[in-house]
Amino acid sequence: MGGSAGTKGGLLLGLPRSVLLMIAILAVNSFTFSYLSIYIAAYLPEAGVSATTIGILLGVEGLAMAIMAIPFGILSDRKGRKRLLVIGSVAPAPVFFVFALSTDPAAMVSAVALGGVFEGIYLATVNALIADQTTLENRNVAFTLSFILGGAGYALGTALPFFIPDLVALLGVEKAAIHQALLYLFGFVNLAIPASLYAILRGVKETVRSGAASLGGLGILLKFSGINSIIGLGAGFIIPLIPTWLFLKFGVPDSYSGPILAISSATIGFGAAFSPRLASRIGTVRAVAATQGLSLAFMVALAFTGDFATAAVVYIIRTGLMNMATPLLDAYLMGIVKPEQRGFASSLNSVIWRIPNSVTTILGGAMLASGNYELPFLIAGAFYVAGISLFYMVFRNVKPSG
Q1: At 85, which CATH number?
Q2: What residue numbers bound the domain in which 64 lies?
Q3: Which residues neighbour 131 within 8 Å (Cβ) at sequence distance 6 or greater?
Q4: Are 162 and 118 in contact (CB under 8 A)?
Q5: C-alpha distances in Å from residue 179, one per residue of 23, 92, 182, 254, 262
Q6: Rg for the chain (alpha carbons), in Å?
Q7: Lesser CB count within 10 Å: N end or C end of the chain?
Q8: pTM to 2 decimals?
Q9: Residues in the chain, pLDDT under 70
Q10: First and final CA of the chain: distance in angstroms?
Q11: Domains contained in the chain, number
């Protein structure tokens, strides 16, 4: 089990200081990238970029992550995770600078591909680093805290467009100029993250296992990831495109859709705070199936809402229920695979989820561009039913071991 030089001096909820600080720094990264996501999905359509192009941008980012995540996961298991995370955290800054300088499709595609590379490194290292420094007793708490702070960062970033109209009136500049300034600002903020992570993680001792990583016992991982990918495939049709859908169906600009995503993120964090307690009462698998299952009715209902206010309320409830389970799933996966396979497991699970998700995001964008605003929700709902049912049937008797 890895340790931290700061573990003895400061514990919160039984967690090492290095875990707490890493989670806090990465919440800043979540804050900046969530703003970028709302810029792409909500503002670019206002600026005349087609829904098909938006789908391609979101899809390419996911595919770039998928291509790189497994090699990064194997590398993190064999050579260590913290150095890879520090080096990889250099990548986000150029992404913001490219979007600040250009709306050329080729430039934006290149930028989101670089962002996908960073996400691949993030997924290959962060969950494994948290798991390596925690125990079975406090791991749910660690992942829940990571999810809450990450969600808070996401909420703040997506809420930023709400203030842009006031800034436009106050400063007497165009909306595009405000967005450009924010992109530059967040690019510079991300330049400071690698040094911060290095300072936090340099005292963490890792047990690096040389040689080829063992691939034994991966059957359970493949089952978990395969079932999870069914939900990822369905989600891709509409979930990343919700701001685009709100703009096309209701004419809602980013100054409104952004805050809706922010409120839904805050709801996720509030709900996730109760996830460990729910899991301790009814079991992790039942807790996951129950919360995800309840969200399904709201997602289907969202397709048929007739006004923005109703759609906003339904989406917030749906998102809170669906994502209450995320920290439980992360902790559960880290507990059912071998410690020396955690980086690979986290990467493989993300890749198997993200590849179909990225492809269907492109398809979902094309559906929205054609004026079909209900079909993506219905297709997603069908896949959710299959994924949630299979997860419960296969894993209801599988317990984490360490």
Answers
A1: 1.20.1250.20
A2: 17-204+214-395
A3: 139, 331, 334, 335, 339, 342
A4: no
A5: 27, 17, 5, 11, 18
A6: 20
A7: N
A8: 0.71
A9: 1-13, 207-217, 268-272, 402
A10: 11
A11: 1
